[in-house]
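Re: [help] complex structure
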Amino acid sequence: MNRPIKKSKRKEIYVVACFFVIIFVGMIAYLINFVTNGAKEFVYNPYNSRFSVFADDVTRGNIYTADGHAIAQTSLGEDRKEVRVYPDKKLFCHSVGYVDKGMTGLEASYSFDLLKSNIPLEEQINNSLTGKKSPGDDLFTTLDYDTQKAAYDGLDIFDGAVIAMEPDTGKIVAMVSKPDFDPNTIAANWDDLTDEKNKKSSLVNRATLGAYPPGSTFKIVTTIAYLRANGGNEDYSFNCKGSLKVDDYKIHCSGHKSHGKEDLLKAFSNSCNSAFADIGLNIDPVDFRGTAESLLFNQELPTMLEHTKASSFKVNSSTAKSIIAQSAIGQGETSASPLHMCMLVSAIANDGNLMEPYLADKIITAKGETVQQTKPKSYGDIISKDEASKLQSYMEAVVMDGTADKVDFGDLKVYGKTGTAEFTNNKNQTHSWFVGYAVDNSGKKLAVAVIMERAGYGSKYAAPLAAKVFKAYFE
Amino acid sequence: MVSVITSFSRITILSFVLAFTIIDLIQIFEFKLSDTLSSILATVQAVMIVLFLINGSIVLYMAKDNDITILVLMLVELVFYWGIYVAVHKMAVPMSRTLLNNILMFLDFSFLMLERIKVQNGIKQLAFGVSALVVAYLVIILIKSIHRVSQHIYFYGAIGIISLLSVIFIGNVEYGARMSFTLLGVRVQPSEFVKLSFVFFIAAAIVTYKDYRGFLISTIGSALHVLVLVLSKDLGSALIFLGAYVFITFIAYKNYILLSIEFAVGLFGGILAYKMFPHIQTRFIAWSDPLSVIDDKGYQISQSLFAIGTPGWFGSGLNNGVPGKIPVVTNDFIFAAIAEEMGTIVAICLILMFMCSVFAIFNIAFSCSNKFYMLVVSGLGIIFAIQSILNIGGVIKFIPSTGVTLPFISSGGSSLLSLMITFFIIDSADELGYCSDVRGIYE
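Output below.
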């Protein structure tokens, strides 16, 4: 059969064969990558109806706070049908989400894991033999029950948001948004909650999706822009007369107060609008925007959370002077989410390094074995160590003898910035802001951002709420 | 009880497929294998094929409320396999035992998955298979009797182009492309058979004219084939024919510069087609971000990815998934159904089996004594490779979906018959070549 042929002349056949082998291997690599990494995007899609198949064999797992409080569990109702129960009702509603009426929150993003059982195989087989369901894996969040409760109770009747995270890990310890809803009765109240006439938008998580004018808390950004424009030099002097005229527009200091002669630290701790309008006007608009963007404005935030809103800072070379002056004090077209402001102070607290915020700490089996543990992830340095240490001293001055010096923070060392943000032309209606962080004796840190809608001065409402959150966390 | 069997069978089926695939890789890539060992391994593979079919059939039998049809089908399928085995041994080339085993394994997947989706589908496919076996055997006898088989260039070219043109005028439109017509109640997809005549055409042109004319004729003929396919919006087939032309001429002329020029022209043509035809652009959108157009063009690929991604490595178990949610699942998207129910590891094994089959075909081409058949076998291998890559790649979103079937696994009679003939030609290439050589000497 094998008559002599010059086979060596046919090596091109194997060149072609190798070409195809490479593509086949590439496809396998792609498939492996898809199933290990890429699939989640598809698996969690609401169009994916395959979840319901899992629920036939597995009982949906529970969700816990970091300190072991069950905040979502499956129990049997009167008709022996499974019901999802949220024992703390509204307390964790936005972070945990709900399962009826299309999933949201952690219920949605970890649905896949909650409906998967990783108990030993022989038990699973045993269960299916006896017609029992296997218990799904449980999710431990990073939330701290007491801190969450302090934030929730502290926000009281106000609309707004509180978010607190550990600067050195990115763990979100508390996340509250109001108005809120009770996930236990979501199906019954659905029509009311989603009614077009209902302007409260209770289902929206304001902590991650709110687009608020940052007001004076934005002076943190303006300060960093100033330092960068002057090569890190802090020298600045300004004589505040209570207002500053920019073209036809007049910037007023809070309460029309004249702060007199100020350096950068004084202007920051007094939250002097005139001085910061002046600073903003003296920075090249392109550089200003560049700094804001390096501090994560105008882009998706680097977090392990789903659905966040990009903050916005739109100054450019053709922006009118009066708008630049307003933008420099966090008004005008500038907007930020509480999550973003919290990340900003968190980076300052962490000497410039930003840790990506996350809510899901670990997944464990019903037997308590860890299946998956989230590792803290660094986004990198968004400001330099030098800038961070300067900002730290300015934020310290705010609490020591600035706008927040009357607030009782107890024994904690607190660094912060207040804000009173106008959101309409009515200057009597303002949002109350506080962003900052606290350090206890052991060096443990917590960063918070608080916004209380229509509450008034930041120093009067938001800062005392932050104090309650700090106390609850460090006690 | 049923769910325990299904669950347990995930592991057994996985073991059969895994063992089969490992032997595949050894047979193809371990060159120092002794004949005895190779033969033993091939027998082990045959056992795996039978075990896989029996195991899968039992699961389906129980899951489908003890439907006895499934068990009857299983027995008929085993007889059918034996028929293929006998037919192949009449042509007898020991080297292609790996290829034969792979094809039987593909048929295992095909029968089990089609029966699982709808028992009727399985019966139909088996009937197609049996007829394909008979017809393909006759076709080989016919080819043996053709005088100067390598010289009917214009005959091969003409039937190809006329068949393809016929679809444009009397064809049925399916999924936006004209690909088939109905003949005596049977849906015929001519492009499946033109793949064969096309390869014969190019090989004949190259072998008959030793100078530039061979290249010229094959180039013009190929361009015409591709043009007609583009006009009937059969994008996948157009790509397959183009690829076959490029690689066959490369193997024949051994010219890298030519290869690069052909690649460049092909790429340019592709870009031109992309700019000209909106239906190609929508395929690209559905590929790059299917979730953004999930209500419309991205629905099929999204459903496919849900199916692959949700159950994960070990799959949901046979009959435990919901492959019916993927549109045209028995045809272009059967790979997604296999991945869903048998798991990602089995899906990877399946890709490896296709890879090994392609390599096995090229091995046969390499040792083919007759140049015409060397080119024919290479060409058929190239088509087989491109088609499986286009199909699987499209299903897993590796490349845009082009609407081609998965060889031996997707449902459809035209495709199965064409593949059976392809396989028989590859398997008997040496003998066919010998026949035409001998005739060449006597004439």
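The two ends of chain A are 88 Å apart (CA to CA).
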